[in-house]
Specification:
The structure is a single chain. It is built from 16 helices and 2 strands. The protein is an all-alpha fold. It has a two-stranded antiparallel ribbon with strand order 1-2. Helix 9 packs antiparallel against helix 15 and helix 12 packs across helix 15. The radius of gyration is 28 Å and the shape is elongated.
Length: 416
């Protein structure tokens, strides 16, 4: 009796876990599936460890996505077979419950055999249930096997098209920046001879923001995309994120807001930065990766100052006015969030400087009006610190390092 209770309870728990995982992974991808996500993380860590000892690590990581998908489907089938075998095990040796050949003793192997032939609808008929509950259970298992294979096909047909679209976005952006992660070739292409910007740039910036949101939604719907390791770094989402970060750093923090206000405060540039910040936060949350603390302002400024100077120098080479030349009102940092949100919500602060709720809301949440950075380089450093830690978390999963992703390779893309 105790064996029957234990096997029934354990088998039921396993089956419910598989059914929920199928529902969350395939039918309702907006809900995180704990079983498949944990399996993917554990399997990817194993592949990363193995890649350090094999002669061609890139090939192993490149095969990671199909291995994880195949492994997940196999895991579903194994757990379904094992769960139903637990339900059959107390009864398979009972002649009143199963019609069995003389050599069947009711062992665990016999229970697995009954479950396997039923799950894959082999229909041998050598061991058949006799009672109504067991017959109903066999029908449920056969239906579960067919449904699981159908869900597996639907899952594959959902993941690979999403992966193709993301890689096309990454390759197109890489072509647009001529494989220079700084993004300067793209800015040069949209810069007219008289120093004004091509009117098509607004559309491209908005399109880029929408691509970032699409990337985020696809990753949250199909977390297995985190473990896609393309054969070339130019196809990676990590390279795309770093290129967008550099573009925002140039447009928002590298250009002089006085001389290029039409671009620095352009609504599409603000949309791009807000979408970028949102995407990084969402990717970090769904990755379940602890963020590396950013360097303290006192110890990590030197590299950031060098990066800011390099951006300004590249912009000046294009004939533009950089923020280090003229910058009386540094721009706000959207990735840092609204700095006075709590004050605006509670109405606290200096009574002498209180404004009306409408004015306070505008000054707090409108990035075009919020001016709170002391210097241009300070604004750039704040932006980099707020975004670098999220990108580092994504890089830890992508299989590529940040240094590999920012390398400017000589490719077929022509630099204008």
């Amino acid at each position: 009796m105790l064996l029957t209770i234990v096997c029934t309870a354990l088998g039921t728990i396993i089956l419910l876990a598989v059914y929920f995982d199928l529902w969350a992974t395939v039918l309702h991808p907006g809900i995180e599936s704990p079983l498949s996500n944990r399996f993917h993380r554990a399997a990817w860590r194993t592949l990363c460890i193995l890649s350090k000892v094999v002669p061609r690590p890139d090939r192993l990581l490149y095969a990671g996505l199909p291995l994880l998908i195949g492994g997940l489907i196999l895991l579903w089938l194994i757990l379904l077979g094992g769960g139903f075998a637990l339900l059959y095990y107390p009864w398979v040796g009972n002649p009143a419950a199963f019609n069995t050949p003389p050599d069947v003793t009711g062992s665990w192997f016999d229970a697995l055999y009954v479950s396997g032939t039923t799950l894959f609808t082999l229909g041998y008929g050598d061991i058949t249930p006799l009672t109504k509950p067991l017959r109903i259970l066999a029908v449920i298992e056969a239906g579960s096997g067919m449904a699981t294979m159908s869900f597996a096909v639907a899952y594959v047909l959902a993941v690979y098209p999403s992966l193709s679209r993301l890689r096309i976005r990454a390759i197109a952006l890489d072509a647009e920046v001529a494989s220079h992660s700084s993004g300067m070739p793209m800015l040069r292409r949209y810069l007219l001879s008289d120093g004004r910007w091509n009117g098509d740039m607004d559309d491209r910036l908005r399109e880029m923001a929408l691509e970032l949101l699409e990337l985020t939604e696809n990753h949250e719907a199909h977390p297995i995309l985190y473990y896609s390791h393309p054969p070339r770094v130019e196809q990676s989402i990590l390279r795309m994120l770093l290129t967008v970060q550099n573009l925002i750093g140039s447009l928002r923090y590298g250009l002089s807001p006085e001389r290029h206000a039409d671009l620095v405060h352009n609504p599409q540039v603000l949309l791009l930065e807000q979408s970028f910040s949102y995407s990084l936060r969402r990717l970090s949350v769904s990755l379940h990766t602890s963020l590396t603390e950013p360097p303290e302002k006192s110890s990590g400024q030197e590299d950031y100052h060098e990066a800011f100077a390099r951006i300004c120098g590249e912009l000046e080479n294009l004939g533009l006015v950089s923020a280090r030349q003229i910058n009386e009102h540094p721009v706000s940092v959207l990735a840092q969030g609204a700095p006075n949100a709590d004050m605006a919500a509670t109405g606290t602060g200096d009574p002498a400087t209180k404004t009306s709720p409408l004015e306070r809301n505008a000054l707090t949440y409108d990035p075009a009006l919020d001016q709170h950075s002391d210097t241009a380089s300070e604004a750039y450093i704040t932006f980099r610190v707020a975004t670098d830690r999220h990108i580092a978390a994504y890089a830890a999963t992508s299989g590529y390092t940040i240094s590999e992703a920012i390398r400017n390779d000589e490719t077929a893309w022509a630099v204008e």
